[in-house]
Design brief:
Layout (H helix, E strand, L loop, with lengths): L10 E4 L15 H10 L5 E6 L2 E12 L2 E8 L5 H19 L3 E6 L1 H10 L3 E2 L16 E6 L1
Parallel strand pairs: 4-5
Antiparallel strand pairs: 1-2, 2-3, 3-4, 5-7, 6-7
Length: 146
Amino acid sequence: MITEKEITAPTVRPMTTNDIPHLVLEQDWLRSVYYDFIDEGRGPAWVLEDEEGLIACFGATILWAGVCEIWFSLIRHDRNLTVIRTSRKFLEEQAIRFGIHRYHATVTGEKGRKFAEFFGFNCETPSGMLNYNPDKSTAWLYSRVL
């Protein structure tokens, strides 16, 4: 049996519009948001991939000097620990590159909350933000201050 450590380490590369059809999204209309994000250059975006293909896509909208909102789309669930380790290290390197001292993200659902916490993010809205999402579901604001 092959373990995660025996598999080739994933690589990170810039995301392109060709990667957008692979995103796992709850609402299909969100695809157009990602096309706009890439086409308009709203912020940096990357793909994490290995020999089997895309694992995840993630990016950041820089709101003002030092502060950005990040997003993350997990495509495959077979290498979660590797995804977290690799993405976290990469984001820390990019924070230095872009002069970021605060990341934040809105998160929905218990899995999303746990994922954010594994990344080292803290919940700033423990009661949630009611009716925040387009479907009126609750979201939580998570942040990581460097």
